Amino acid sequence: MADTQQIDPKAERKAAKLARQISAFSKAHGGAEGQVAYIGERGARIVLVGEDGGWGDLVAPNTTIAEQAVQKAGITVHESFDGEFAAKVRTGPYEWKRMAGIQIGG
Predict the structure, then answer these.
(1) Quick one: 25 exposed, middle or buried, by C-beta within 10 A (0-12, 13-18, 19+)?
(2) What local confidence, expressed as pLDDT, does residue 102 receive?
(3) How many whole angstroms separate alpha carbon 43 and alpha carbon 59?
(4) Nearest-CA neighbor of 34 among 23, 62, 10, 92?
(5) Using CA atoms, how far apart are residues 52 and 4, in angstroms rounded to an integer?
(6) Rounded to the nearest 5°, which phi and psi values hold at 55?
(7) 33 touches 75 (CB < 8 A)
(8) pLDDT of residue 61
(9) Which has the minimum average pLDDT: 20-29, 56-65, 72-81, 88-97?
(10) Contact between residue 60 and residue 46 where contact means Cβ atoms under 8 Å apart
């Protein structure tokens, strides 16, 4: 008897929606790379870094859906957010002001 794998239609739709969002980000930023990180009960965070240094993130219900989404979008996925990958991020005045505010209790 063949081993059949159950496909959850809701999970497939969510992965497809995330893949469209990832692809749109990639198109807007001249390409993109990503990293999937488990964030506990909330699911998985997909961190995106564009070729222009722009960055953003999405949250998937779980790591399986996040991994399906990045695969469908066809972006390069890194194991961790460090080294050369992290160095590609370009932060602007908003982020610097926000980080300074956190440090001084703002």
Answers:
(1) buried
(2) 58
(3) 7
(4) 23
(5) 43
(6) -140, 160
(7) yes
(8) 97
(9) 88-97
(10) yes
Which residue type does 70 have? V
**Cα(14)–Cα(41) distance, integer angstroms:** 17
Task: State pLDDT tens for residues 10-56.
Answer: 999 999 999 999 999 999 999 999 999 999 999 999 999 999 999 99
Tell me the one-letter amino acid at 7: I
C-alpha to C-alpha distance for 86 and 22, rounded to whole angstroms: 18
With a cut of 70, say whether residue 6 has pLDDT above it: no
| Mean pLDDT for all residues in the chain | 89
DSSP the chain: --------HHHHHHHHHHHHHHHHHHHHTTSEEEEEEE-GGG-EEEEEEETTS-EEEEEESSHHHHHHHHHHHT-EEESSS-HHHHHT----HHHHHHHHHHHTT-
